[in-house]
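The following record pairs a protein chain with its ligand, pyridoxal-5'-phosphate.
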Amino acid sequence: MLELIKKIDKECGTPFYLVYPERFVNNLQNFRKAFTDIYPNFILSYSFKTNYTSILLQQAKNIDCFAETVSSMEYNLAVQKGFATNRIIFNGPIKNFEDIKKALANKSIVQLDSEYEIEHVLKVHKENPTLELNVGLRINMEVGSGNIALQGGLRQSRFGFTNDMLKRVIPLLKDANVKIISLHGHTSSSDRVVENYRHISKRLMQVRHDFELDSIRYINVGGGFFGAAPEGIDVSQKPKYTDYAKGICETLLADNWFKEHKPYIVIEPGASVVSNVFELVTKIYQHKNIQGQNFVFTDASYFQVRPFLNKMNLPFTEYSEKSEEPEIQADIVGATCMEVDKLAEGVSLRHYTNGDYLLFRAVGAYRQNLSPLFIIPWSPVVEVSSTGCFYISKKRQDATDLLNLLEK
Ligand SMILES: Cc1ncc(COP(=O)(O)O)c(C=O)c1O
């Protein structure tokens, strides 16, 4: 690996991402198989926001995934990447009238999240009463009642319609002959356990039943799964794709309406299919000991490794041509001017002199998309095949790229 890193460094410098497209395809195929082995009507929709790397979007399309998008920009990205519009799911809390009108006309699966969107749909109906309108509804999981531990220790989910809201909006949609074809229950939990998905599935079927929604074609449990963990992370106690598939299918198939009508089960995985698809290689520039605290300076930034400053350090490997140094406990720090720029905290290192490399694993989800153009440019992306060949698919951004973004 050191030889490969050195070769790439020579061509494009550090830091750089290594991307393994074959891993992405395997993850998606394995997730799909876990469901279709139990239940055939299944849609795998890749969560665009997790990583926009072009090759990944292309591959998701090639293997018949739907596109899960959460903004007008992402929706247009899916269209431009060639996803058929009836294979685009349009989620997200903020959609303007024009976005909704276009997506409805395109027969995309539009998941409404709030009451203002109902008004937009009714306006589209008023403008064109003969147009058949199909919509989905995101259902609030009412997690405050204690069933799902929300991400970040939050107590209430702000997304989707509560039962009280549903009582107001469903009659309005029915009166305008708008068909409700999808129920959506994405919930970002802190523990990602299978039980959460049993709860989501039950709640969606309860809503289906209570509001007599007989035109439902999609039961969408969202993303938020565990998976695609790299080596170095203990997964022995974590759910597998097959555990989620079993929990969700079993719960849904226990519902008589579901068994009879056989709607599609939809999932929208992001992190669970892309985490292990990217690695980040960064170079060490300096070791400093300041009042007993070791700092190891690298040329990457925490946005690329730990954008939410999570407590847990990502697994990494040291690569060096030199022999080992005495072991130190150190914070690995980044190239920005912020004190909080720490890629990892309190880790032990045996290579920490100028020119050594660190390779961080599991940086595929939410790192590239959340990395700002701040002090250091976006890093190049280098595709690596299973045979070890590499190809620089995205070059490092430079001052000209920055000016183009700022001035156009
Ligand atoms: C609606 C929706 N679907 C899918 C996802 C993907 O979640 P994850 O990356 O945890 O699988 C998200 C993430 O926030 C989301 O908001």
